[in-house]
Structure of VWA3A protein:
Amino acid sequence: RWVLSLECKGSRNVLSALRRAVEVEFKDKDKHKSQGLYLLTTGIPDQETHTISAYVAEACRGFDLQLHVCLFSVTKGTDFSGIIPARYANPTETASAFKEIVQAANGRFHWFGEAGIFESDDISSIISEMEKAKNYSQKCAFLVESLKQRS
């Protein structure tokens, strides 16, 4: 709700944003069975990954809250009006940091850019299910074929 009234700024103070979302905005968190928080970002948080991971692990304990991260890799040459992040990491390091954070929060990680999807836990799960179905189908076909040959 409150996020709709915010304007884009240059901070990547993820820990502060998460604290606000969890400690202020989820006032009635105990009344809900499951809740999810989505972090939409383009870069590495200002804080160290282990600090954020420890916070979200503690914050998510006790009720069903999951933190999901959508990382958008911006193409080089994009103008950010002189905003320089407090920390810098290349896209692979940034993705790795957010994967660690979502693991601590039992969430999902999605990484995409203008070129398409680089990585997505949801898509990986779907592909895994499809592989299982294909393997099961092949085993069934083999079983049916072996039964036909016995007859």
